[in-house]
């Protein structure tokens, strides 16, 4: 197998599995953005000219998807809960085991920010956000696995 | 410079302090048929300092111990020495209130615990 390129291209196998129901594939994905959304507090005191306290005290991991098939999102209203998974192939080896691709999983998560955009003389696009949460308050719902 | 009360560094980091004046006690008399008021000065009641900051502890155990120390200082009926963040020292200071103004915050990936607070010190003169 060729050496993994270290570059990823064209995310695939995007699936939302609701807490109750069957896995729901999301196709036509044109972009996917993964962010940790860390919240940092900063504070300064009397006569200080730099922050003397800095700490990242919260994470809000979020995956935003854009698809050119926004009708797919009709079945995923805001507040839906479940697990979201998506694979990102290595540019050379694809999804081969040990080939450099990776898998993102947000478990558990809920759906936020479903919407669509309909441009003149262009395909309509839809966006959906999957926002992770931790029932125990400490377990990171976002896992990134090398394939 | 760190501020402390009763020799204990209870104020943590990013300490801000603000002086609040307490009006002198007055007795104001008015006599029927006479214009104006008669004001009798009842003396000073001292002043207050409002302090806010962030308790910044290495773990929950340390934070709990610090909060226990603060409760002890608050319960003590006498005076403490107070040194503010500029190094100025005041004697005859009582810790009137000490209230958290945030949830206990944990730093991601560490045992560090942080807690915002606001407290009021009363300076007797």
Most extensive chain contact?
A-B, 16 and 18 residues
Count of individual helical segments of chain A: 0
Derived from helix and strand composition plus strand pairing, the structural class of chain B reads mainly beta
- Specify the overall morphology of chain A: globular
Q: Given the structure, what is the number of helices of chain B?
A: 1
Query: How many strands, what sense, and barrel or not for the largest sheet of chain B?
Result: 7 strands, antiparallel
The tally of strands of chain B reads: 9
Distance between the termini of chain A: 14 Å
Structural class, from secondary structure content of chain A? mainly beta
* Portion of residues within helices of chain A: under 10%
List low-pLDDT spans of chain B: none
Mean pLDDT of chain B: 93
> Ranges of chain A with pLDDT <50 over ≥5 residues?
none
How many β-strand runs of chain A? 10
Beta-strand percentage range of chain A: over 45%
Helix content of chain B: 10-25%
- One letter per element, helices H and strands E, the order of chain B comes to EEEEEHEEEE
Q: How would you sum up this structure, described in words?
A:
The complex is a heterodimer of chains A (147) and B (125). Chain A is built from no helices and 10 strands. Chain A is mainly beta. In chain A, strands 1, 2, 3, 6, 7, 8, 9 and 10 form an 8-stranded antiparallel beta sheet that branches. In chain A, strands 4-5 form a two-stranded antiparallel sheet. In chain B, a hairpin with a 6-residue loop joins β8 and β9. Chain B starts with a strand and ends with a strand. At the A-B interface, β5 of A face β2, β5 and β8 of B.
């Amino acid at each position: 197998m060729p050496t993994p390129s270290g570059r990823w291209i064209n995310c695939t196998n995007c699936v939302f599995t609701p807490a109750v129901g069957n896995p729901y594939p999301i196709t036509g994905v044109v972009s996917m953005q993964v962010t940790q959304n860390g919240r940092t507090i900063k504070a300064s005191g009397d006569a200080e000219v730099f922050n003397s306290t800095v700490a990242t005290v919260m994470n809000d991991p979020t995956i935003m998807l854009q698809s050119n098939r926004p009708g797919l999102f009709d079945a995923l209203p805001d507040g839906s809960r479940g697990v979201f998974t998506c694979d990102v192939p290595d540019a050379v080896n694809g999804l081969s085991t040990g080939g450099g691709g990776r898998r993102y999983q947000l478990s558990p998560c809920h759906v936020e920010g479903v919407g669509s955009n309909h441009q003149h003389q262009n395909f309509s696009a839809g966006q959906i956000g999957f926002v992770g949460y931790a029932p125990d308050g400490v377990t990171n719902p976002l896992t990134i696995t090398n394939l | 410079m760190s501020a402390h009360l009763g020799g204990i560094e209870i104020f943590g980091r990013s300490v801000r302090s603000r002086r609040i004046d307490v009006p002198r006690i007055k007795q104001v008399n008015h006599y029927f048929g006479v214009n104006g008021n008669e004001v009798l000065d009842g003396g000073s009641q001292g002043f207050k300092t409002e302090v806010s900051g962030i308790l910044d502890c290495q773990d929950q155990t340390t934070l709990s111990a610090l909060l226990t120390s603060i409760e002890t200082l608050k319960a003590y009926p006498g005076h403490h020495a107070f040194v503010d963040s500029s190094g100025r020292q005041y004697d005859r200071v009582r810790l009137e209130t000490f209230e958290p103004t945030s949830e206990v915050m944990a730093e991601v990936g560490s045992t560090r615990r942080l807690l915002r607070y606001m407290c009021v010190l009363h300076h007797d003169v």
